[in-house]
Amino acid sequence: MKKFTLSLKRCVFFSVCLGFLVLSGFDLPEEQTFFIQSFLTKYYDNDAQMKDIKRYEINVTNTGFCRYRKVFNNGKEEYFAFNLSRFKSMDYYGTTTKGDLYLRTKKDDVIVQTRNDRSGEIDSMGTYVVIPLKNIDVQQLNELADRFKRVNESLLASNR
Asked: Is the pTM of the predicted complex or chain greater than 0.85?
């Protein structure tokens, strides 16, 4: 009976270990979206537009929406949003010190809204969002591009 109990304990222990290994290998979409949001917020270049922008918000939701909102000192607001399932590519123009990140979509999938502007309120569609970044290197940009692709693939797979 002792041998049976010892064997049972070993079997349960190895089963639990195997379960942890299997479950830790999967990336949850929530982890990817949290990484993208924290990454964009961490490397956002507030100094590039500091004299014009009062505040900004970057939000990447678990349901797959990327939202970027800028509020200017004069009260004007610009709002950009797109579903990450429509993400096509990412381009970075600049240096490791500062540059602009272009998030491109497949078609006119970016919602662009302007509020409290002298020329009136504008609702339109676009093909990209530009986010200013600073102090970022190539490996970090590659990691960000990889995370965008993973979220895109998981959203496309869940929509099928």
From this structure: no
